[in-house]
# Entry
Amino acid sequence: MDRFPKKPCKHCKLTGHFPYQCRYNPKKAIKRATPKQYNTIKRSPLKRSTKPINKIGKTAKQWFVTRATWIRNNPPPIEGQYWECYLQIHPWCPRRIDLAHLTLDHVVSRTRDPSLRFKAENLRPACMPCNEMKGSRALDVVKPKPVQ
# Structure
């Protein structure tokens, strides 16, 4: 494919450039409406469906319900407002997690056993760095038990 057009320019009849690059191309200034004119511009009404847009899917709704139920059934044990990160594998782990920074980790990952995805017994509190570090790996791979 050539970098230059084969047809001559419609403005100057020369070759070697595109019409939008031509120095003889009449440039029109954009006429902008003033705020007073902008309010008087008639806009065409958009057709809107009566059905609302479903922004959250079924799985997300079920996860929000599961998370809220877990938080209600497992209140924060430390000073009534903090959970303790059960992994504590990341160097930046804060150990104490408040509600704003709480993530629930699946002990048995969702990929290994999808049936445990929404089970409260499979969820544990973890901080974001530790949860991301664990990923979908098994707990004993990430945090091996100490040898006695």
